[in-house]
Design a protein that fits this description.
The protein is α/β, with parallel strands linked by helices. Helix content is 50%, strand content 21%. It contains six helices and five strands.
Amino acid sequence: MLQEYQRILVATDGSEGADLALNKAVAIAKRNNAKLFILHVLDTRAIQATSSSDIHFREALRTLGDRVMEEAKDYATGQGLTEVETILEMGSPKSIIAEDIPKREGIDLIVMGAKGMGAIERFFMGSVSENVIRHAACDVLVVRPKESE
């Protein structure tokens, strides 16, 4: 018997990979008549790199996050989903996606795009998707772009 998911989390940053993940998450939510949670995390590493008085930068990040989520929600509802919730969080994407939101919202599937991070960057920071796979207590689907032929 196939797994039925009821509460699906899709992490988005507005990138091409995140859009692919959103498409897949919407399709899964439709097949399962599930609620879709769209998450955007304002990475505190980017915010901490600015001075504490640079409120304009923080506001710009929040505005961008709101826009990304609103576009994602419009897509999901346009595809026929009726239960869609957006969540904007500030902090470490790794722990928020893998642990905080799934625990708080009772998520049973996380869908996210694979990020094309180089070997050096992965060595120092680690891949968010790799971390989520290792630490999430629920199923995780990492969506990869199809290779062009």
